[in-house]
Amino acid sequence: MNDELNDPELQKILSKKANQILNSLKEKVEEPVKHLNSKNFEEFITKNKIVVVDFWAEWCAPCFILAPIIEELANDYPQVAFGKLNTEENQDIVMRYGIMSLPTVMFFKNGEPVDQILGAVPREEIEVRIKALLE
Amino acid sequence: MRGMNPLLLGIDGLSYTSFMKCNPRTLFTLFSSTYRGVVLNKKPQFPQTSWMSVLELKDIKDMSAVNLNNEKPRLLKETNAVAINLPITNPTYGKLSLPYDTSVNAEEEINKVTQIVLELIEESPVIASITAIDRLLHKDPTEKCKIYSLVDSAVRKILNKVDDFIIFSLYGEPKGENEDGNHEDYGVFLATIPRPSEHDTVKLQEIGELFIKLVKKEYY
């Protein structure tokens, strides 16, 4: 076992993995809710197991009421990836998921949409869906 | 008897992002019962130039271009409105003039603004500002929900007497310790007048234009 741990190849792999984890944690602390766009959306929903995406627009007042709740949940659930997508600037994603009203919160598991919530809702309503996905 | 004169009330620094946390009941009721929007005003944002952009109906970036000694701002002239506590000068401009610093507490300012608005709205249109959120939260953000509660009560009292109004904020929550142009880019807009395009953000100049329509009753 000790010999294996001293293996330079294994050390390299472990160190690389540790760096990846540290970088992802650093990214999460710096930007708890990642700004998504057409370029990074696909990678974001497939790379992370459970994903919550807040679809918003600048003119949408309820979106601003909801935003701090999403941010709070992102800090409280580090095992879930949180993102936000400006619908005015990323119409292709909006069309793909048939977003008809704002705000919409969409939940993804293993890259697939599994649930959604429409409107500015209390924290508990979003949290209960997250807990169900984590079970 | 209800006063029929319209009110333009700026609550500087009021932000939708604090609605869930502070739960201002009257503002929440207005949110679901009036025409609403999001004011867009990108950094750097200052109370003087942002207010002057509303009052002159054009983008004002520099106060050196403004002369308040010789003439009134355009919006006051066009609407014959009375000004109350507008932070375009220090002390503030209008019938109520208070020092723009931390020497006046939120309760005192809000009570004075409320009282004078209620007195004058019977006589003419009113353009007023409550500066407490922006003036005080840069220094002490922990007071936020207390000030929101005072603002909410004041709005309830004022709207009991007013039919037509625009309530807005020049920008969102204050950030940083000093008034150095740092706030959220998005403010509040709640009004009894519809906007031509509700899927656009509200620009500062547009607020003045809408108030003129409200005063001249051009939207009926």
From TrEMBL, chain A:
Gene3D superfamilies: Glutaredoxin (3.40.30.10). GO terms for cellular component: cytoplasm. Keywords: Disulfide bond, Electron transport, Redox-active center, Transport. One of its GO terms (molecular function) is protein-disulfide reductase activity. Residues 11-135 form the Thioredoxin domain. It comes from the Archaea. CDD domains: TRX_family. NCBIfam families: thioredoxin. This is Thioredoxin. It comes from Saccharolobus islandicus (strain Y.N.15.51 / Yellowstone #2).
